[in-house]
Task: structure prediction
Amino acid sequence: MNRFFLYIALIAYLASTLSFLFYVIRNKNLIEKTAHYLLILGFICHITAIVVRFFEAGYTPITNLHESLSFFALCLAGFFIYLKGIYKTGILGAIVLPAISVLVVWSNILPSEIKPLPPALNSYWLPIHTFFCFAGNAVFLMSFFISVFYLIMERSIKQKKIMSIINRMPSLETLDRINYICISYGFPFLTIGIISGSIWAKVAWGAYWSWDPKETWSLITWIVYAILLHNRLAIGWRGKKTAYMMILGFFSILFTFIGVNFFIGGLHSYL
Result:
């Protein structure tokens, strides 16, 4: 039953994607509103799919790559809806919604059968650790998009090549402010995720830290964002420096989440 709601969510996300792309071309408020409501519909159906899977499985469904990608997409959709409610970020839907759709499609083509949990995962730390890690990663993916747009806009303005789409984007100052919001949420989420994972590791494997590849890369990622946050607060990093560090941090997240699983392995390879 959970797959039914996930398919409905995917259809809504794809329709929202097309609407946002059409909005880039036509710039009509009605098109933007349609895209927004389709996004909301997809988000609600997506939540329903995960809740149904929770009751079908009997545990928090973030234990394999199918479930992880799905939950990651849900977090990204939720954070985009949140930002869109505060700032005029509708135009960003043309890149965020395709990313959400790709994640859900990828999730759907992966094996999705419900299996008994490995003993190490059968813990109340599972929902705590996974929620904060994936929520933080979704926030940082959003910051990656914001940073790319910032750099494109900054270069276009400097070269006096102002495209019509850039005129509809939030200002550079607003994009920089959104980036600060992203790190204000994402860094605490990532920190709680690492701490809860360390406590869970002690319960499951007898040690708080074992330098497992995913643990190591999570720490590297945390250090990148810690440097960025420190320099922003202490010496006033803004604009391009923040954008470049956000992009670097997300590439570290990407390797932690995907690269370690496929190229290195380790205790976390069940994802």
In short: The chain is about 80% helix and 0% strand. The radius of gyration is 19 Å. Residues 1-116 form a domain with the Four Helix Bundle (Hemerythrin (Met), subunit A) fold (CATH 1.20.120).
